[in-house]
Protein: tRNA (Adenine(22)-N(1))-methyltransferase TrmK
Organism: Pseudoalteromonas marina
Amino acid sequence: MKLSKRLAAIDALITRQQNTIWDCCCDHGYLGMALLKRSAADKVMFVDILSNVMADLEATLTRNKKLRTPGDKKPEWQVLCQDVGSIKLDDVANQVVVIAGIGGELALRLVQQIIANNSPECVKHVRFILCPIHHTYLLRSGLHTLNLGLHSEHIISDKNRIYELIEVSFKSNQTVSKTGDAMWDLNNKQHTAYIQRLLNHYNKMLNKDELYYQKVISDYQSLYDS
Ligand SMILES: C[S@@+](CC[C@H](N)C(=O)[O-])C[C@H]1O[C@@H](n2cnc3c(N)ncnc32)[C@H](O)[C@@H]1O
């Protein structure tokens, strides 16, 4: 199974051998399976709340001899059918939590819950790789409030959609900006069209909370001043 451009961009951020990788909200599990195949970690955890999808995924992983042959050195895997907010992290030095393909508001809530439900000792070694659908301003503001620092941020264009790929941890001191200061190429038409779409969307939201959305709009507009 060839990864989509979006999932391939996430995969490409995991270059160093990891102890544990969490493919959260994994659904089909394509990303985790690709990580398993290239032995990117000692252990790959698949987590989703849908029991039928997780049962199918478990059956696929069990059947697939390339992913786990008894006695060989391939990484371990585990399928968990539960809310991502309640995962128990491993106490290891290199751990990545990937949350992709869900809304930014939910992604923030899940990150907040993971941090609240695990010891600071475990959480301090974790790198979060986030690639949500929409609501990235809210997500970014929340990551900043949590004191998470930025490692990298990228714009990914995949099948006529634009995604923000954000990598954060407590080990970085770089501020997470609300609009993604480090990722824009204002000479790239896809990037400017995406900013314009965000501005159009937030202009429509003005009647819901004028003060808040005016600030969001002026933050995105100021990208053009930098
Ligand atoms: C569109 S899929 C994303 C699949 C994959 N991560 C990707 O980016 O292509 C979203 C998945 O999130 C799962 N999900 C939503 N909220 C969840 C939660 N709180 N805990 C676990 N899984 C959740 C859904 O069941 C669904 O399978």
